[in-house]
Design goal:
- By secondary structure, this protein is of the alpha+beta class.
- It has a single domain, classed as Immunoglobulin-like (Sandwich), CATH 2.60.40.10.
- The protein is built from 1 helix and 9 strands; from the N terminus they run αβββββββββ.
- The strands form 2 sheets. It has a 5-stranded antiparallel β-sheet, with no helix packed on it. A 4-stranded antiparallel β-sheet has the order 4-3-7-8, with no helix packed on it.
- A hairpin with a 2-residue loop joins β1 and β2.
- The longest helix has 24 residues.
- It is globular.
- The protein starts with a helix and ends in a 5-residue tail after the last strand.
Length: about 140
């Protein structure tokens, strides 16, 4: 009997580890027509506000000297302009930073650039202590 329990618990643990790895490693779900791919999004709390940094990659070529023009837009049409944007030295990725109120993290957000809407975050809140940072590789956060 104890052997069956051990086997059952081992199977449950293995399934949990596989599901967690799949959740963590799956990429952002982008439209196939978009030449841009979201690599990851990091969020850092700074008192009542948050820094949201989106790392983008162009699927087909290197990025030019300037990052693409874009805005963060919620489902109600509220637009947030980037606070900072820069291209990496190897020109393979660019980082675009937005300054939001902590309450804004409960909404769904998309990145609008070059006629494309890239889903960044689905609706739902997160809890971060002041100074803490989290990195996401999918829209469910």
């Amino acid at each position: 009997m104890p052997r069956r329990v051990t086997l059952l618990l081992t199977c449950v643990l293995l399934l949990s580890v596989l599901w967690t790895a799949w959740q963590w490693l799956r990429p952002y779900q982008m439209g196939q027509a978009s030449p841009w791919q979201v690599e990851e999004v990091s969020v850092r709390r700074d008192h009542g506000s948050v820094w949201v940094e989106v790392e983008l990659k162009h699927r087909e070529s290197l990025i030019g000297d300037e990052p693409p023009l874009c805005d963060l837009v919620d489902a109600q049409g509220t637009r947030m302009n980037p606070a900072d944007a820069r291209v990496s030295k190897d020109r393979k990725t660019c980082q675009i930073r937005f300054w939001l109120n902590a309450n804004d993290l409960t909404r769904e957000w998309s990145l609008q650039l070059q006629g494309e809407n890239l889903l960044i975050k689905k609706s739902g809140g997160i809890v971060l202590k002041n100074g803490h940072r989290r990195t996401y590789r999918q829209t469910q956060w």
